[in-house]
Write a structure and sequence with these properties.
Helix content: 25-40%
Number of strands: 3
Strand content: 15-25%
Shape: extended
Order of helices and strands: HHEEEH
Length: 100
């Protein structure tokens, strides 16, 4: 019976299930939180908007880093190495300096 009490029912509505495309992540942090802003930049358009913002505790940010690393490892075993292509720096006029 304990296993049933420990389960969480997670729901995903149709709009959220569609997802949001992002080709840039801007990451900032304070002593108590990490802020991840996801942006979609289009070629030739000098303005872009933040499409989604996720705020995490430092502990959750570290767990996310580990989970992404593990998933990239499994992906590369199945599909080969993900090549990191060189891209020109994107000039950002957006709050404090962050890293993608």
């Amino acid at each position: 019976m304990k296993d049933q009490q420990d389960q969480i029912n997670i729901e995903l509505d149709e709009k959220t299930a569609e997802g949001i495309y992002s080709n840039l992540a801007i990451i900032n942090h304070s002593s108590s939180e990490f802020v991840l802003d996801f942006v979609s930049i289009m070629p030739g358009i000098p303005k872009a908007k933040v499409k989604s913002r996720i705020v995490l505790t430092p502990q959750h940010a570290k767990r996310l880093l580990k989970a992404i690393g593990e998933n990239i490892h499994r992906f590369e075993i199945a599909h080969g190495e993900i090549k990191d292509t060189e891209q020109p720096p994107i000039p950002l006029n957006f709050g404090p300096a962050g890293q993608a």
